[in-house]
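Model the whole thing, not chain by chain.
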Amino acid sequence: MQNLQETPRGLFAGRKGRARRETLTAYLFLLPAIVIIFVFGLWPVAHALYVSLHKWNVKPRGSQCFSYWLASLGLGSEDALAQTDCLGIDNYVELLGLGDAWAIIGMIVAVILGVVAYSLWKRSKREEGTSRARQIAAGVVALAGLVLLARVLPGLIASGEWTYLVAIALALLSWLVWKGSSLSESTLRLILRWVSIIALLSAATFFFFVDFQHMWDLGNQEFLKSLIYTVFYSVGTVPVQLGASLALAYILFQGIRGRGAFRLLYFMPYIAPSVATAVVFRRIFSLRDTGLMNKLIGLVGMEPLKWLHESKGVNLIILDLINQGFGTNLTWPNFSDPLNVILSGPSLALVSIIIYNWWVFVGYDTVIYLAGLGAIPHELYEAAEIDGAGRWSLFRKITIPLLSPTTFFLTVIAVIGTFKAFNHIWMMRELAARDTVYTTSILIFQTFRADGQFGEAAAMSFILFGVILVLSQVQNRIGEKLVFYG
Amino acid sequence: MANSTKPNSARLALRRGIPRGLLYLVLLLGAAIMVLPFLWMLSTSVMTIGEANAGRVLPRAVRLSCPYVNLPKYDKAGIVTEFAVSPKVQAGEQELHTNSYYVEIQQAGTGQWQFRLVNNEAKPIAIAPADQPDGTLTEDWQPIPQAGGVVDTGRGLSFTFGPPSTYPADAAFDRRSGASRTEYVNCCEYPTDMLEKGEADRGEREYTGREIPTDLSACRTAGRKVSYFFEEFLGGNYYQAWKGAKFNSYMWNSTRLTVITLAGILIVSTLAAYAFGRMTFPGRNFLFAVLLSTMMIPETVTMIPNFLTITGNNPFLPFINWYDNWPALTIPFMAGFFNIFLLRQFFAQIPDELWDAARIDGAGHLRFLIQVVLPLSKAPIMTVTIFAFIGSWNALLWPLIATKAGSDWWPISVGLQNFVSEAGPETQLWMASASISMLPVLILYFLAQKQFIEGIATTGLKG
């Protein structure tokens, strides 16, 4: 008791001192985490961006970008301009086949300004107090966007890249149309809305393909192909995985005996090291007649397939099967290249990897769905039953909407996961499948490790990062609209 | 009883409708699909190359075959009389790799045996004449035309097994009876050595193997007591995979690296999570948001700069030189913010009264963390441990980057991928090595399945 009455002295004494001391302790606690995360998690982003501006082959050399930029501003020696590794944004330009890169960057900035202006204006209508200031700000931002757009428009038109702008504009417009919908709409208006959304989206898709053709002609086709394959992989994986696991979880939830045992078994593929299970599946998808998968399809009378060794698109294989089955002689039309790559679908090798992915993640999704199902209050079902709802409408009107947060979470995790996937694809690639299983992650690793192209690989990884960021934003926006949080 | 009277929501939903049997059928089918690859892996890992290539579902209970063609010729008493040189087996125009061929004995009836020369797809390409008492490959063997097999017997190719009269009766072939196959397949005792010896005799290489006894009846007695299971399981593919791929080194490396990573993650994360969850200090929210944003960054972005950092090419940390050494394989993994996030959520829920009581007792933050918070947080710490263990055990991308070819620090994942790319297409060895590398994780899973499933169901992520 006596101690407490003494007048506090020193740096850590008194109320202020105690706070100071707490701060110091906290930062001491945080020190290891901050240091490690900064060095290996945060700093690399800046460093990778920096590397991506260079043409580092094989051995990383010291950067010359600063001296180059200084020299180009007239501040350094002339030598720096002559011998340089510094490419600026050339890596990105070459990868994506941007004809007039600065015009495109200007266009993107203008679009972002437009979106910012729109959201400011929207918010000014919702809130009272600061609305005038918001409106002025929105006007200024929109004006800046328009000026910028006017400035870059000649460049876009001259290089034939105005289609990017049209595609983005159409996509945004369809988004606005969708966002404006409300529950109390009449059927006619709803139909009109959907028709216009579909029209806008198909127009946007058309222009997007024109863009893509443009990129294909000028850019790095290997990289663009890898993006297509990644999208195939993602689209092939996620919906099936979610559908199957929802069905399994729903069945498991019906007071099934031995639920724990089922859960235990379903979860095993997810928990086992993917490096090892990929090895097992590489043999299951063997090209031998005696491989497990070939024996399985043999049971239904199919000819053996080459699975992981097959670089042919799956649509071409289906066409072959149709020809065999019905004795027809259909041939694959001759499309020009980016369209052909897209229309022939993922190679059978990639499909095999997709099937492996289902096997790994269905159990995981089932466990998460089970947790979600457990959280639905059973009073809802009872009430609906009393009102005479059938089994299907219970599932459709209660289970699905109340599970939508879980579905949303799983979709986000799965989509981002497929864009990052490396281990099992790396383990399952066969030489014969060539680059048809090279998703972007694999291609980045190859460019970096096998070819030693540090700059190009870093630029690729940044584009992938950008795609992941945009995707998660889009998913968030759609999620806001669709997900029902109780 | 109280529980059963309470209406189960979902049971109501399906009260009338699909029969329950159908539901169980779907669930069992799902379980079969999930488990089948594992069972297939285990089953294939104890097969011979021929069985694996033939795509058998189960290995034969008893195999009276030598997996190699290059065998010494020995007389019916089991004494080697001549060493076979360069057996040449042709399929059409193509000369095939000889060690893919072997003679196997098929039971043709009670007490009757048929010798067949089998190719690497387990298709018989030649059959011994019916009256032949042993497996010696002679000109009388009938090639099977549809298999395209032509057997060249002009090069001293010879197979001899013990006389059929010594084969046990049918009952003894039952695996459950514990019959030892070693007794009859003594030629398999030194298969690789014999192969090597054959090549050495032809002057293709130097012989470095064991000395092969001329009297193989000795090893016949030596192997007699070994039961089928252990010989096959430990002396077969597992042994070969383990030896052939330095798996003891990979296993030891993975264990060491995992322990270091785990210890690091636990120390770093508990301290940071405590600071974020239970202390107030300026800049807390900002710092938290900044560190949280690192969870979005894919590994492909960070791998190139991190490679530059560990090789001493980071302009601000030029003194770091961890390439191909353990710090490079452990410290970057401690940078996961997810663990901190998970623990913080739990730490923040611990009642403040506990802290007040501890403070009155004169405890500081560190003492409170160690003596109160940690014992209360066993479940989340277990979850973090499991995530970190799996993540570390399964890491492939970063170890591939941070080590050089043939490194002494290769963990099991890199070792496995290297083994698979070098072992050739020998399925049974692949499966043996895959099961070796899976085993620790699966054992842990079955021991702590509740923590695994609950931990992941509530947090939704794998480390």
